[in-house]
Amino acid sequence: MNKVLMLGNEAVARGLWEAGVNVISSYPGTPSTEITEFAAKYDDMYSEWAPNEKVAFEVAFGASMGGARSFCAMKHVGLNVAADPLYTASYIGATGGMVCAVADDPGMHSSQNEQDSRHHAIASKTPMLEPSDSAECRDFAVMAYELSERFGTPFLLRLSTRVSHARSIVELGERKDVPVKEYKKDVMARVMMPAMARPAHERVEKRLAEMTEFANKEAVELGINTVEMNNTEIGIICSGASYTYAHEAMGENASYLKIGMVNPLPTTLIEDFASKVDKVIVIEELDPIIEMQCIRLGVKVTGKEKFSVLGEFSHKTVEEALTDTEKEFLSLDEDIPARPPVLCAGCPHRGLYYALKGMGLYVSGDIGCYTLGAQAPLAMMDSCVCMGASVSGLHGYNLARGEEAAEKSVAVIGDSTFIHSGITGIIDIAYNKGFSTVIVLDNSITGMTGHQNNPANGLTIKNDPTVSVDLEALAKAVGFENVRVVDPFDIEGTKAAVREELSKKAPSLIISRRPCALLKTVRHAAPVRINSDKCIGCKACLNVGCPALSFTKRENGKPLALIDNTQCVGCGVCASACKFGAIEKGE
Amino acid sequence: MEVKNILIVGVGGQGTLLASKLMGKCFLQQGFDVKVSEVHGMSQRGGSVVTYVRYGEKVYSPVIEKGEADIIISFEQLESARWLPWLKKDGVLISSTQEIDPMPVIMGKAEYPENILGKIEDKGVKLVCIDALEKALEAGTAKCANIVLLGAAARFLGTDRDMWLEIIKSTVPPKTVETNLKAFDLGFNG
């Protein structure tokens, strides 16, 4: 049996393998990460984690110019980082087939914004395919390589959380061996100086017109764009996950134009479909891209007036907008406390934040697990923008507010995020004689995306040993004279180090170093114990915000700290918070 | 066949993903169309998590909405209360009796409701309570509470026990097979 249940991301990886891809370079980002993790399991494809998405895209594009089929993956905001090479790669075009997967996150399950990556496809004039389930993830990935080479352009493959992270059935094929193409020097086509870029732009416009023709006819024959005629009172135009919601809600009560190629859009196909139905509804998550195209074509549609630009849809969204179905449901007449995500028990970030607490600092934050420290009770973050912005943003904050502010402010940035785009920030601080103090939270892994190796932890994507970035030497090399390492579980030591560095009229880099508590290589201590004679029930220990620590009642009704032994890993940060010595080492 | 909906809910880190993966495999082997929708990323860090499992002749939407779940498998009492509205009338709720305080409760900003499962039963819900954590410890490790709950749910899915055992054997790491099989039976035999 060659039918298997696969995550959408796993199916993309399978498609890459079957398409004969040779070179893969990505930076992790939810919901795109697993594509490259699964791809790395195939030994006949080269795969790597790059320091950031720009590098990943450029590696993949370089491989395409070198004649190989290549791939890179990133989340929607990652494509902003890779946008620079994307726009010019579109001018140069692909030699070996190239696909860049970009995973949007409608509803922001794990993201800082909800941008629609189709805008990048339109603006960079790059064709974009959008699968709606795992089978199409595989199929579209395979087809994208044929089309990339035929039209001579990189392809974007747009995914979203409910496609990337849903399992459905995939029929497997075999790997096709695609030899690396012979290299031919072509300065006019590949060196983008004004004289070469002007004709390149003309080629891009011509290609877009050809691809629109392709979208109208051949894409239908290939099953990329599909028309399903049922009841013709309502005609729904949709793509990706929205198609699954629309079909679930409406079944055969509507006809469907499912668009698998979302850029360029199939103009005559849309007009033809619209002419066969009484009313056209466009169902698309996020921005009105298909709707605007319909309006341009003079096709009257209902779109964003019924379907929000905000958040994620489901079949219920469609039912509520288009039918009068109502489902009964039960609920308890109770206030149900929210359960927000928290730093794990034993997380080294907790120690660092607890040490910073009470120092009255402005904390310029960044993207990663440690962003969770923004929430109560730690509440140790003032801002979080994008990868790397903690460092450069702190420099700006201190320029605005002066030297005194620099004595009361720090940036916090994880090891992987620092490599991604914190390094240029510290160069800016040193070069421009800033005084800022930057803390790198080095937990030896890219955490939030589910444990990927990175250039600072000495392991490749395949867990092979390799060189690791020497953060201390790096900071010194760019001009930071004050560089030191602290153990975030040593609260007093960390506090003292931060105070000392803040008082210096020079830039400082503090590395808060301790591996992620979830790493298999980390050995944990026994759970801590509460000495009930010493615990006075003051609840000061709750300020560390540990999920393994709560309070219970004694027989006399007075509060007593309680350790959840299934969660506690004995890090002892809570013991630092107890003035009465009531939290003791376990055995 | 009408599409069947199973909701698996719990706290990030409790192992809901493995349970849904095993279920998906099981329905695939029985020749159904299957979709399993998971949550990765931020909520995995101790937040409220949900996985949707849907199977039938043809499944379109990967998600389940309020009033649609035939079975809810809940790894924690508060999550049973949170996701109760997703249960279909006449649906079955299989709930672990485990309680895990969320941060607002730990901080004293909210109270963990009392007697949740009793109140749910009072609503006339078909409820199966199981001390999955205790049974998991009996099997060998707290980590296999997910498989205990899977075993408890398997009784309502009409699937052959041997088929489940084979799927577990072929999915979990070799070292953990014995513990997981034991956990499954502890749940299955109630």
Share of residues in strands of chain B: 15-25%
Measured between the Cα atoms of the first and last residue of chain B, the distance is 29 Å
Structural class of chain A: alpha/beta
Structural class category of chain B: alpha/beta
The ordered H/E elements of chain B are EHEEEHEHHEHHHH
Shape summary of chain B: globular
CA-CA gap between termini of chain A: 51 Å
Report what the structure shows.
The complex is a heterodimer of chains A (587) and B (190). Chain A has 587 residues and is α/β, with parallel strands linked by helices. In chain A, the strands form six sheets. A seven-stranded mixed sheet of chain A has the order 3-2-4-5-7-6-12. In chain A, strands 16-15-17-18-20-19 form a six-stranded parallel sheet, sandwiched between helices. In chain A, α2 (33-39) links the parallel β2 and β3 (46-49). Chain B is an alpha/beta fold and 190 residues long. Chain B contains eight helices and six strands. Chain B has helices at residues 16-29, 77-83, 103-106, 116-122, 132-139, 145-157, 161-171, 177-188; strands at residues 4-11, 33-37, 48-56, 69-74, 87-96, 126-130. In chain B, α2 links the parallel β4 and β5. In chain B, α6 (145-157) packs across α8 (177-188). At the A-B interface, β1, β8, α12 and β22 of A face α1, β2, α2, α3 and α4 of B.
Compact summary:
The complex is a heterodimer of chains A (587) and B (190). Chain A is of the alpha/beta class.
